[in-house]
Amino acid sequence: MASLAAAQTSATLQTARRSALSGRPAAARGVAPARPARGAALVVRAERGSGSFWSGFVVGGVVCGALGFVFAPQISKALLGDDDRLKLRWDEATDGEVTKQNLADKIAQLNAAIDDVSSQLNARDAIKDEAKALTWLGDAVLGAAVSDLLFTSLPPNATTEQLHNRRMELVRQEACAAGAARLGLAELLVVGKGYEGQLPTARMLAEAFEAVWGALYEDAGFHLSAVKAPYSRLFPVTLNGHDGHDGLIVAAGVATNGSV
């Protein structure tokens, strides 16, 4: 009987303790108390004195965590210091933003430099295209000027076939290259690295020669007389011979190994 009474008393104490932990009396719930939460169970085991090392470790961790949460503002203040320290950190952050801005400026300057190089390359392409256009124009202008000069110096017995053949001789690539060499254009040509140290080709000189006359024609307001006068003075045109072009290619130092 004594053992049974002791067991009942122990059960009553446990029920009261569980009720206190759960916040509601057992009688008010009308049902058997639910299993206590994990933290509450650890507290009960600690109170009983039957907890292991790990139980005490967990309980100690919970307590230390709670203390840390409570004293977190004081700890933060101790680590960060007063307002001056915080202001210094803010200034450092601001300096970081300035550094980012400087980096952005440098990137913008780099982009501008790249754009400038690109624009220079585009300008070179534009110059190259303009030179090609002047070469095309000069080719047509030379044909017209030579035709006019030949026609005005036409002997009574000349045939159209003779005129055609002679004009072809005067405007062919070799004749234009010889004329360019006589004008000293070979020394003025700017060639690529692949042609450095080499003689300019006949094609290079011929195109430069045609481009000069094309530019002169354009600059004179597209008047053919502006081309005929200097051309006839530098390269006298006759039906049976041309003192200005013939025999000058090799003597002027023009490469004759092809038309490239």
UniProtKB/TrEMBL annotation:
What InterPro entries does the record tag this protein with? RNase_III_dom, RNase_III_sf, Ssl2009-like
Identify the Gene3D superfamilies for this entry: Ribonuclease III domain
Q: Which GO terms describe its molecular function?
A: ribonuclease III activity
Protein name as annotated: Ribonuclease III
Spans traversing the lipid bilayer: 52-72
The RNase III domain is annotated at 118-221
GO CC field: chloroplast inner membrane; chloroplast thylakoid membrane
List, alphabetically, the Pfam families matched: Ribonuclease_3
One GO BP on record is: RNA processing
- Identify the keywords attached in UniProt to this record, alphabetized: Membrane, Transmembrane, Transmembrane helix
Organism per entry: Chlorella sorokiniana
